[in-house]
Write a structure and sequence with these properties.
Residues 1-67 are annotated as: Disordered. Helix content is 55%, strand content 3%. It is mostly helical and 516 residues long. A 3-stranded antiparallel beta sheet has the order 1-2-3. Helix 4 packs across helix 6 and helix 15 packs antiparallel against helix 16 (432-507). It starts with 62 loop residues before the first helix and ends in a 9-residue tail after the last helix.
């Protein structure tokens, strides 16, 4: 897109003007009408899956230094002083340009250039700075704009768009400048720092509602495949691991909370509720307006200044980022609400389909029977009660586990023979063996008593375990009935949440708030 030099950039909304006008050095009254950016905007396109066409004509003499692909790359700085005969003169020009946009971003003031600072031939920055000063003072800037465009059209457009945005005069940006500076977006190429800075400025209202529409149309033309990775978009919108099931029934019996068939509908309902809350936050938040020319104030972030410094060669360009990565960052909780509103436009299709899937998951009827672990034994539960066969098998296993402990009785029969042997020896050999027989008999009797007491305690434990197993199985059946009642209420709530979210998607975010 070429810069339109037939309009006077010093006038707000000058896209349709054909005769330049002077204001005798006085700044014009701020416009209350949005800039007519739609005049040069491409028609909105649908996601067809085909990448948009890109210009192949070179737009800058130093394009081989700045371009990373055949598309517009508006962020890499031109080689400092490469076309300038005097490096000292260009250094002075660069220092003044940096001071100029720094003051514009801080308080909107315009420092006067030192003598001969703008007399640097062969580089776009000198006429672009001269044009910016004329635009800020409301004077005719066509002649320096023409010279700057011949030396570096894309760099000039980016310089003017960002400088006017941070100064609060974004409404003086012509539609063709924004199109030239922004270029095209594509999922196959990274987003340059310059494109991201323009994107952010437009989202914050620097160029009025039409600037936001411009970015939305660029995103539409890029055909971002939001439906290709729904899980990734959902993790960005509602991050974090699924929370424990918010179901009184499952809380009553923790064993049921381990059954996927019962937990998944509960988690789906919780995620749908969180998704509705996040979408409500995005669509309902009306961000505070950025500073305007009527009320100068500091620009809220340093990203445009970083791009401007890299554009004039004062510092290295910033890192590149993917289009999808920027959008995913923008929809996360805690991100800039201006950017969230723009990104939500792209995420709307995946939000709608994900919400429908979550609502459908909550409508799954409870299973006719489930198998849950109770006291370490798998029991099949049905609405009418526990399965008799599985319950009997569990009781048998409990009794079998207690049976080996009763085998110790046979170990006491061996020592029980010793008193008898000692008694025989007392009659045949010596009476002293009679005393030994009494002692051994007492010891054996005590051992048999302890063994019998242990067996009785084990039997009582087995019966207690069986009784507890039956009670918990019966309790689980009642919990299933409570869960079924909760499922009906949960399905109704999910349907209401889906309807509310659908209304939010139709209304869209508040991207065109009133300008102050």
């Amino acid at each position: 897109m070429s810069m339109d030099l037939t309009a006077d950039p010093g006038l707000p909304g000058a896209a349709d003007s054909t005769k330049p006008q002077r204001h005798n050095g006085e700044p014009p009254a701020p416009s209350t009408e949005p800039t007519d950016l739609d005049a040069d905007l491409p028609a909105p396109t649908h996601h067809s899956g085909e990448p948009p066409a890109h210009s192949t004509e070179p737009t800058d003499p130093d394009a081989d230094l700045r371009a990373h692909s055949e598309s517009h790359d508006v962020d890499l700085p031109a080689r400092a002083g490469s076309d300038v005969g005097h490096d000292g003169d260009f250094s002075e020009l660069r220092r003044y340009a940096e001071a100029l946009f720094t003051h514009l971003a801080a308080d909107g003031t315009v420092p006067q250039p030192p003598p001969n600072t703008l007399d640097v031939p062969g580089h776009w920055l000198a006429p672009a700075t001269e044009a910016l000063l004329l635009i800020l003072s409301g004077e005719d800037a066509l002649e320096p704009l023409a010279r700057a465009a011949q030396l570096g059209e894309v760099d000039t457009a980016l310089f003017l768009c960002l400088s006017l945005a941070v100064s609060g005069h974004g409404d003086r940006v012509h539609a063709s400048w924004l199109g030239t500076a922004f270029g095209d977006l594509s999922t196959e190429r990274p987003v340059t720092p310059g494109q991201r800075a323009l994107w952010t400025a437009a989202a914050r209202g620097a160029y009025g509602p039409a600037g936001k529409i411009f970015v939305l149309r660029k995103l539409d033309a890029a055909a971002v495949p939001s439906t290709a990775e729904p899980d990734r978009w959902l993790r960005a919108l509602v991050p974090g691991e699924p929370s424990p099931p918010a179901s009184p029934a499952l809380t009553t019996l923790p064993a049921l909370a381990e059954v996927p068939e019962l937990v998944q509908p509960v988690q789906a309902a919780a995620q749908l509720s969180r998704l509705l809350e996040r979408c409500t936050e995005i669509t309902s938040t009306r961000p505070s307006p950025i500073p305007r020319s009527e009320t100068p104030g500091p620009w809220p972030d340093a990203e445009p200044l970083t791009v401007l410094r890299s554009l004039i060669g004062s510092e290295e360009p910033g890192p590149l980022g993917s289009l999808t990565g920027h959008l995913l960052d923008d929809v996360q909780a805690g991100s800039d609400p201006h950017l969230s509103a723009i990104a939500f436009h792209v995420a709307a299709p995946v939000v709608r389909s994900a919400a429908e899937e979550l609502a459908q998951a909550t409508q799954v009827a409870p299973p006719a029977e489930i198998t849950v672990p109770i006291l370490g034994h798998d029991i099949t539960l049905r609405p009418e009660g526990p399965d008799a066969d599985s319950l009997a098998a569990a009781e048998a296993r409990i009794r079998a586990e207690g049976a080996p402990r009763g085998a110790g009785r046979w170990l006491a029969y061996g020592p029980a023979l010793l008193p008898i042997v000692a008694l025989v020896l007392a009659f045949t050999i010596s009476e002293l063996f009679a005393i030994a027989a009494l002692v051994l008999g007492g010891i054996v009797g005590y051992l048999l008593w302890r063994l019998n007491a242990r067996e009785q305690a084990e039997a009582r434990r087995v019966e207690a375990d069986i009784t507890r197993l039956r009670e918990e199985a019966d309790s689980a059946v009642w919990v299933l009935h409570d869960y079924a009642r909760e499922a009906a209420q949960r399905s109704e709530t999910a349907a209401e949440s889906l309807a509310a979210l659908t209304r939010l998607l139709r209304r869209g975010p508040a991207v065109a708030e009133q300008r102050p």
